[in-house]
Write a structure and sequence with these properties.
single chain, alpha/beta, Rossmann fold, seven-stranded mixed beta sheet, 5 helices, globular
């Protein structure tokens, strides 16, 4: 897939406020320091489409980006929240849950996991809720340029072993790097395949 057009379409805290028209949506979520905004910018080829920050947890809204006038890339707030009050945590949880529960156009959710570390408990807990709610998802390992290929392979295999303790079958898995562009073609090709099968 070649991205010829990628524009910010709107922000909201509830599905009722998302932009129109309704189109297939591919959403991205992960812990608040996983490199989500950088990955989105790399995938779209737009260096400042999603706002990046050295302070984790800056995404507080559901941000829609219209891609090729055909589908939305959706940037969701992180679930491993940065330092914030309990009230702010509840508001973010409500925003995320409202989107996941009520977005009938959600074609696939990409869950981002930092490749440098063992998959975290909040990652596993979040993924478990996707299974319970029958939400289709794939996993993208980020920051894969930060370690050698053998170390990366071992870490992904270790994470898959942990996931298989609760899952009979693993979801699609991608390895990516916002710095090198690794994984871009594979992820966009996968999105294209899902779109063509809708």
């Amino acid at each position: 897939m070649k991205i010829n057009k990628a524009i910010f379409a709107g922000s909201s805290t509830r599905v009722s406020g998302r932009p129109k028209p309704k189109l297939p949506e591919f959403a991205f979520i992960g812990r608040s320091n996983v490199g989500k905004s950088s990955l989105i910018n790399m995938l779209t080829g737009r260096s400042s489409l999603a706002k990046t920050s050295s302070t984790p947890g800056k995404t507080r809204l559901v941000n829609h980006f219209l891609i090729n006038d055909r589908w939305y890339l959706v940037d969701l707030p992180g679930y491993g929240f940065a330092k914030m009050s309990n009230e702010e945590r509840r508001e973010l949880s409500d925003t995320i849950n409202d989107y996941l529960d009520n977005s009938g156009e959600l074609a696939l959710l990409f869950v981002l996991v930092d490749s440098r570390h063992e998959i975290q408990r909040n990652d596993l807990e979040f993924i478990a809720t996707l299974g319970r709610d029958s939400i289709p998802f794939a996993i993208i390992y980020t920051k894969c340029d930060k370690m050698g290929p053998e170390a990366l392979k071992r870490q992904i295999e270790a994470n898959e072993k942990i996931l298989l303790e609760d899952w009979e079958e693993l979801p699609p898995v991608f390895a990516s790097s916002a710095s090198s562009g690794a994984g871009r073609e594979e992820i966009l090709s996968f999105i294209d395949t899902v779109l063509n099968n809708l």
